[in-house]
TrEMBL record:
Gene3D superfamilies xref list: Leucine Dehydrogenase, chain A, domain 1, NAD(P)-binding Rossmann-like Domain
Organism: Rhodococcus parequi
Protein name: Bifunctional protein FolD
One Pfam match: THF_DHG_CYH_C
Lineage: Bacteria, Bacillati, Actinomycetota, Actinomycetes, Mycobacteriales
UniProt entry tagged with the keyword Transport: no
């Protein structure tokens, strides 16, 4: 068997086309959505992601607001920048690029974001709303994963999903999305303390690998025909590596590659969250 590729770039292009039209409609009503980013330090990966977010904004007509701060900034200085974007009327949504340098308190920074401007859906109030099933901006990577599965008609209802990795941007929130009544999956959240990871992954219809460990998920761990989404990213001497070994394609029914799978959708749904918020402000959504 050779797996069907879940093409994140083609799916991203469809989303951008829709967003471009919606941004034009907002502008006709006198509202221009504005995405802010706060980047601390000079990690090349984070800098590239932030550059990508701003070039996406230009493609769909969203205003870009950039705040780049030195790596040795204090928590107080970071929080002053967060306060500034909370108060900035041009900025309708923004993100703090993660991870932050070790000396900074990431949770305190996320908590200081105005929940109504939280474009990443990572503020505790918005994660709490997700737990309660209330409307909220959804974390971008999990939203991209669900969209990609639906787009390629991978059966989700009743499926057994193994998530590998418990980070705040993917592993923890994806279980909350997939167990909503609209998705109805059964989710096992695996991590470094999981006994016999291979056995957990082997019984899954859908595997979401988001551990950041190159090649962690191998072909012998995959149930034939399963959907395998490679979300982890590691920068190695050989370049970017995902969590999923290449030969998984010979066993799986569906594979999202890395790069070119879920990553482009993380960026697309960030813009989507910003546009949805602007539509709420304009009274264009229900
Ligand atoms: N505040 C946030 N920080 C981080 C998030 C996030 O959602 N919010 N997620 C990741 C990084 N990230 C966005 O910020 C991100 C990661 C990967 C991609 C992407 O498009 N990847 C491409 C490959 C890119 C490359 O060549 O380097 C792909 O998968 O095809 C976009 C965004 C951690 N931090
Ligand atoms: Mg991500």
């Amino acid at each position: 068997m050779t797996a069907t590729i879940l093409d994140g770039k083609a799916t991203r292009d469809e989303i951008f086309e829709d967003l471009e039209a919606r941004v034009a409609a907002l502008k006709e009503k006198g509202i221009t959505p504005g995405l802010g980013t706060i980047l601390v330090g000079d990690d090349p990966g984070s800098a590239a992601y932030v550059r990508g977010k701003h070039s996406d904004c230009a493609k769909v007509g969203i205003t870009s607001i950039r705040r780049d701060l030195p790596a040795d900034i204090t928590q107080e200085e970071l929080e002053a920048t967060i306060d500034e974007l909370n108060a900035n009327p041009e900025c309708t949504g923004y993100i703090v690029q993660l991870p932050l340098p070790k000396h900074l308190d990431e949770n305190a920074a996320l908590e200081r974001i105005d929940p109504d401007k939280d474009a990443d859906g990572l503020h505790p109030v918005n994660l709490g709303r997700l737990v309660l099933g209330k409307e909220a901006p959804l974390p971008c990577t999990p939203r991209g994963i669900v969209h990609l599965l639906r787009r390629y008609e991978v059966p989700i209802a009743g499926a057994h999903v193994a998530v590998v990795g418990r980070g705040v941007t993917v592993g923890r929130p994806i279980g909350l999305l997939l167990t909503r009544r609209t998705e109805n999956a059964t989710v096992t959240l695996c991590h470094t303390g999981t006994r016999d990871l291979a056995a957990q992954v082997r019984q899954a219809d859908i595997v979401i690998a988001a551990a950041g460990v190159p090649g962690l998920v191998t072909a012998d761990m995959i149930k034939p025909g399963a959907a395998v989404l490679d979300v982890g990213v590691s920068r190695t001497a050989d370049g970017l590596r995902g969590d999923v070994a290449d030969d998984v394609r010979e066993v799986a029914g569906f594979v999202s590659p890395n790069p070119g799978g879920v990553g482009p959708l993380t960026r697309a749904f960030l813009l989507s969250n910003v546009v949805e918020r602007a539509e709420q402000l304009a009274g264009l959504s229900d």
